[in-house]
């Protein structure tokens, strides 16, 4: 089976539900979820969508997030639609851990099923940067 087709393991399902429920309790639902097209990422995104009550039309898939280079991931964030002030990206390491550590050097690794929230004091995504990122939440199994 190719990597992109690997499904979410039972442990991953349990951990995703756990983190999604914690986010729900913290009232941390995003406006939109954008997921990699890998099967396991889609499965994770669907769990978060259901638990956080994100409307179906606000779950999008992007082939760009699968095997994305960390520099391209930063550019992906900078190119997000400014209509959305709260976006959840579902993707893969090592790029997601790298980006998180650039935003907050105390983050060394984002474990599978973890969720981290950064806020930027800007009006447009293209103005977001490592120097104006503020970590507001880091949940992990």
Could you characterize the architecture of this molecule?
By secondary structure, this protein is of the alpha/beta class. The protein has one domain: Rossmann fold (3-Layer(aba) Sandwich). The chain has four helices and five strands. The protein has a three-stranded parallel beta sheet, with helices on one face. It is globular. The two termini are 26 Å apart. The mean pLDDT is 95.
| Second CATH tier, the architecture | 3-Layer(aba) Sandwich
CA distance, first residue to last residue: 26 Å
Count of domain modules: 1
How many helices? The count is: 4
DSSP strand count: 5
CATH superfamily: Phosphoglycerate mutase-like
Poorly predicted ranges: none
What top-tier CATH class fits best?
A: Alpha Beta
Radius of gyration equals 14 Å
- Globally, the shape reads globular
Strand order in the largest sheet: 2-1-3
Main sheet summary? 3 strands, parallel
Q: Kindly name the structural category.
A: alpha/beta
Order of helices and strands: HEHEHEHEE
Beta-strand content bin? 15-25%
CATH topology: Rossmann fold
- Helical content (DSSP H or I, runs of 4+): 25-40%
| Average of per-residue pLDDT values | 95
Quick description:
Helices cover 33% and strands 18% of the residues. It has 141 residues and is of the alpha/beta class.
Descriptors for this entry?
141 residues, 5 strands, two-stranded antiparallel sheet, Rossmann fold
């Amino acid at each position: 089976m190719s990597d992109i087709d690997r499904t979410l393991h039972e442990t991953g399902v349990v951990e995703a539900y756990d983190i999604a429920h914690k986010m729900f309790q913290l009232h941390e639902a995003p406006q939109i979820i954008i997921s990699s097209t890998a099967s396991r990422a889609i499965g994770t995104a669907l769990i978060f969508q259901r638990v956080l009550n994100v409307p179906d039309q606000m779950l999008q898939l992007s082939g760009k997030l699968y095997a994305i280079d960390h520099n391209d991931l930063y550019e992906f964030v900078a190119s997000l639609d400014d209509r959305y002030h709260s976006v959840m990206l579902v993707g893969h390491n090592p790029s997601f851990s790298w980006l998180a550590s650039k935003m907050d050097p105390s983050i060394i690794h984002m474990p599978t099923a973890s969720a981290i929230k950064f806020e930027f004091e800007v009006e447009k995504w293209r103005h977001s940067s490592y120097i104006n990122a503020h970590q507001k939440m880091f949940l992990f199994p």
